[in-house]
């Protein structure tokens, strides 16, 4: 059984895509490590990157070319100042030089050294091959970006951290998880906290969970206070700014924490609740579409659902909630996400948008249900309900950009998550007809049946019905 940490499911990185941006970025970093391990890093004079399948078809719109350049340049997606990204990319394009691993310059022309190959590699839809050259030989390595920022190789999964730990409570399915909850008399977040303790100290867990949340909060804050048009050519106007301006009250604030307090003082009629949740989700994914810093939850394209639902709980449902509830929410969400990753996929290139928005909605629904007093069984029911109503959702981004319909879909996923949690709280688990594991299996079977043109290729659906000229 795989040991997948909460922090594997909730990664801090740069937009717009976890599979097409963060994954290739991490693959470039892994390639540098391979060259160092082979003692050839300092001999490299040139490098080429071949992108395949979905990475090629929607790579431009997802900034895959930027990601591999930044990774080869030695930048870290978790910590690079966002304002440095355009500077680095412009320097590479202008000088035709790459600061290889941030150590020395090598020749690199993005127009010829990043090759977009439309064909798919057999192992996974998101394939990429790195080739490094020195005077008398070359070194090649192929990686696959399998969703959520995870990368792998066809015959070697050791590059992922999720196989190196040893959890006290190992589970692949929700049935196995519920058995542990029943036996240990613990809720889901408590089971996972014990697992996390096998990797990190309690202080590290608390600190990292709050770092994840503060990144989410800052992302919402930035999105709600930034106006303008999103990059990429579709000329999509940011909406979170105007929506927030119409919703926020008159209480002054100067930082995200004061902002929360200010929102808590606004009126919360049903329509306002819908608008606030939508506003939070829009804000995150507008930041994501602008190559901003977001939390992959479980992907970048679905990064707005979980923070929007957690923010709903903090500013609408429970004004007294704080760090304890935030950590509990994120931990439970991470558990549910790991079950989908193990049993199905969190990659839109493999499963369509049901694998991204659907999974994020299930994660958020489960987390909210636990915070609102749901039993472990009801928590899994909440996840099941949320996913059940995303089954078959296609991934068909217009122009390959994570904007239309992706940004709005986060608002829908968040609203569905809240509704699913409420339905689960009023459900007797003995009367539930569809267990979570059945939905996970069904999602995977649906993914396999889905036509490839609806799997993040921009070759079907809205992506061909609407184009940049129409916009």
Characterise the protein shown here.
- By secondary structure, this protein is α+β, with helices and mostly antiparallel strands.
- It is 51% helix and 10% strand.
- It has 20 helices and nine strands.
- It has helices at 6-9, 18-37, 54-57, 64-72, 82-95, 110-113, 174-184, 188-196, 202-224, 240-247, 256-263, 270-289, 305-317, 323-343, 348-351, 357-371, 376-388, 406-425, 436-449, 462-465, and strands at 11-14, 46-53, 97-100, 104-107, 114-117, 126-133, 138-147, 150-152, 293-296.
- The strands form three sheets. A five-stranded mixed β-sheet has the order 5-2-6-7-8. Strands 1-9 form a two-stranded antiparallel ribbon.
- A hairpin with a 3-residue loop joins strand 3 (97-100) and strand 4.
- Helix 9 crosses helix 12 (270-289) and helix 17 (376-388) runs parallel beside helix 19 (436-449).
- 52% of the residues are buried.
Number of strands: 9
The main β sheet shows up as: 5 strands, mixed
Strand arrangement across the biggest beta sheet: 5-2-6-7-8
Secondary-structure element pattern, one letter each: HEHEHHHEEHEEEEHHHHHHEHHHHHHHH
How much of the sequence lies in strands comes to: 5-15%
Radius of gyration: 22 Å
- End-to-end distance: 47 Å
């Amino acid at each position: 059984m795989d040991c997948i940490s909460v922090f594997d499911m909730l990664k801090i990185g740069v937009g717009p895509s976890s599979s097409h941006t963060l994954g290739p970025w991490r693959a470039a970093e892994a390639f540098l490590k391979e060259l160092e391990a082979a003692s050839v890093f300092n001999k490299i004079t040139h490098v080429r990157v071949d992108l395949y399948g979905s990475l090629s078809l929607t790579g431009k719109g997802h900034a895959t070319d930027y990601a591999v350049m930044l990774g080869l340049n030695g930048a870290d997606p978790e910590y690079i100042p966002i304002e440095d990204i355009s500077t680095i990319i412009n320097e590479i394009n202008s000088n035709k030089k790459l600061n290889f691993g941030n150590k020395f310059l090598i020749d690199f022309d993005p127009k010829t050294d990043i090759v977009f190959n439309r064909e798919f590699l057999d192992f996974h839809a998101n394939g990429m091959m790195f080739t490094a050259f020195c005077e008398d030989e070359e070194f090649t390595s192929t990686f696959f970006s399998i969703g959520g920022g995870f990368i792998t190789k066809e015959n070697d999964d050791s590059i992922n951290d999720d196989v190196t730990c040893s959890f006290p409570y190992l589970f692949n399915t929700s049935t196995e998880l519920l058995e542990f909850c029943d036996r240990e008399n613990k809720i889901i977040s408590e089971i996972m906290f014990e697992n996390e303790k096998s990797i990190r100290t309690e202080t590290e867990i608390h600190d990292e969970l709050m770092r994840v949340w503060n990144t989410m909060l800052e992302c919402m804050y930035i999105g709600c206070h930034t106006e303008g048009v999103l990059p990429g050519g579709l000329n999509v106007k940011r909406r979170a700014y105007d929506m927030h301006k119409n919703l926020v009250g008159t209480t002054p604030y100067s930082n995200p924490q004061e902002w929360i307090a200010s929102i808590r003082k606004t009126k919360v009629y049903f329509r306002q609740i819908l608008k606030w949740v939508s506003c939070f989700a829009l804000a995150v994914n507008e930041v994501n579409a602008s190559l901003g810093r977001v939390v992959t939850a479980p992907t970048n394209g679905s990064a707005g659902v979980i923070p929007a639902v957690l923010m709903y709980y903090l500013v609408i449902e429970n004004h007294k909630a704080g760090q304890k509830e935030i950590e509990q929410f994120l931990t439970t969400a991470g558990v549910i996400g790991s079950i989908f990753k193990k049993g199905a996929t969190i990659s839109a290139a493999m499963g369509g948008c049901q694998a991204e928005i659907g999974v994020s909605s299930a994660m958020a629904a489960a987390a909210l249900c636990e915070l609102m007093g749901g039993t472990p069984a009801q928590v899994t029911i909440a996840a099941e309900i949320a996913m059940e109503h995303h089954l078959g959702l296609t991934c068909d981004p217009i122009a390959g950009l994570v904007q239309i319909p992706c940004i709005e879909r986060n608002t829908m996923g968040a609203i569905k998550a809240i509704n699913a949690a409420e339905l689960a709280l009023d459900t007797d688990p003995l009367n539930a007809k569809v267990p979570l594991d059945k939905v996970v299996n069904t999602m995977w079977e649906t993914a396999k049946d889905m036509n490839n043109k609806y799997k993040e290729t921009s070759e079907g659906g809205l992506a061909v019905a609407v184009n940049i000229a129409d916009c």
